Amino acid sequence: MNPQKKFHLVFSILMGSLMFLVMTFVITFANVGWSENFSRLWMKAYGIAFVVGVPLIFFVAPVARKLTGRLLDMPN
Question: How many domains is the chain partitioned into structurally?
Answer without folding.
Answer: 1
